[in-house]
């Protein structure tokens, strides 16, 4: 199926001011490779939080930035290594790229991943690999004029091995990367279910006024408990499902096929259950499960989807 050359209007992101000089760029519908970015505009320069997946999506984002401000983006923060958050790094040639040291390590190991088996219809464009220039691990503060921006590594594996939270204390805005999929199925295949649960507690403790997740709509303080609890409920459901699967001596895929998602079937990208179960099995110490690799888990997600490729509008 040929895909359109331009980002369709329904899947087009836009910059929205969520606090003074702080913008979210939420791309609907938040499914595979349709991630969110953030932009902080200073007096003479700007900082972008993450980039996006395809060349044309990055181009649309850059067009939106240029329509808003003539300040160059001098710094890009990668919240983690995944393609949708980092593929556009090379399209910000004036920017220094900052990421967690583990994020850079995985990026350099992987290069530009080949997703053709699961996502053959995505037009990635002419991508060039661009690794982060500066790596950090603990708490680091950036200063954009008078505005402090804190980058916080977690110290443990959560969504990935190198997640960064981006917190603007004076605006009480938090960018979480993919530690939250608002309205979507959490995805821990490259990380840890337990670690993601731990990270959600850390996120809650910020008491942010606005949270911009890695995918799905941004939300305010009043919705925080609801969103975080929905993510927690799903992750605990995956853990309980894995425990049942181990007891019944089923493979992660067999257990996924035997599971009724119930209330979680309304979350997008539900085939992630099959991938997440591999991780949940690994995290049960007595399971006897031997890690089969992410490629096998992705194959299982397609089998779980009755052979259909994941829904992807990137
Ligand atoms: Zn991710």
Keywords:
314 residues; alpha/beta; Metallo-beta-lactamase, Chain A; 7-stranded mixed beta sheet; 6-stranded mixed beta sheet; 31% helix; 22% strand; disordered N terminus; binds zinc ion
Q: Mind explaining what this structure looks like?
A:
With about 325 residues, this protein is an alpha/beta fold. It folds into two domains: about 10-235, 4-Layer Sandwich (Metallo-beta-lactamase, Chain A); about 240-305, no CATH class. The protein is built from eight helices and 13 strands. The protein has a seven-stranded mixed β-sheet with strand order 1-2-3-4-5-6-7. Strands 8-9-10-11-12-13 form a six-stranded mixed β-sheet, with helices on one face. Bound molecules: zinc ion.
Structural class: alpha/beta
The name of the CATH superfamily of the largest domain reads: Ribonuclease Z/Hydroxyacylglutathione hydrolase-like
Rg, Å, rounded: 19 Å
Bound molecules: zinc ion
What is the overall silhouette? globular
CATH topology of the largest domain: Metallo-beta-lactamase, Chain A
How many helices? The count is 8
State the strand order across the main sheet.
1-2-3-4-5-6-7
**What helical percentage do the residues reach?**
25-40%
Order of helices and strands: EEEEHEHEHEEEEEHEEHHHH
CATH architecture of the largest domain: 4-Layer Sandwich
For the biggest sheet, the summary is: 7 strands, mixed
Total count of strands: 13
Average per-residue pLDDT, rounded, comes to: 95
CATH class of the largest domain: Alpha Beta
Strand content: 15-25%
